[in-house]
Amino acid sequence: MFIIGYFLQALGTVLGYVIQIYIYIIVARAILSWVSPDPFNPIVRFITNVTDPVLIPLRRKLPLFVGGIDFSPIVLILGLLFLQIFVVQSLMRIAAGLVV
What we know:
The protein is mainly α and 100 residues long. It is built from 3 helices and 2 strands; from the N terminus they run H-H-E-E-H. The protein has one domain. Strands 1-2 form a two-stranded antiparallel sheet.
């Protein structure tokens, strides 16, 4: 059973890193929305292409524009932090129980 435990531990660690990197990309997207970047810049296109599939449906379901400020990235970051704490910590706890 220790193999499954180590697999779950590795999965939790990698998932935690992926969520953290995605949070950084969302913050970069929010900062880019304050300026007018070149839309043909490869970095700007990458950030837009990675975040739009999640932000656009969130904006449709929850109209979070107040005073011209878009709060959907904040809601998404809070959701990702919840997933990071709940799912990753649950995987780590299950893995710790299987390794012993």
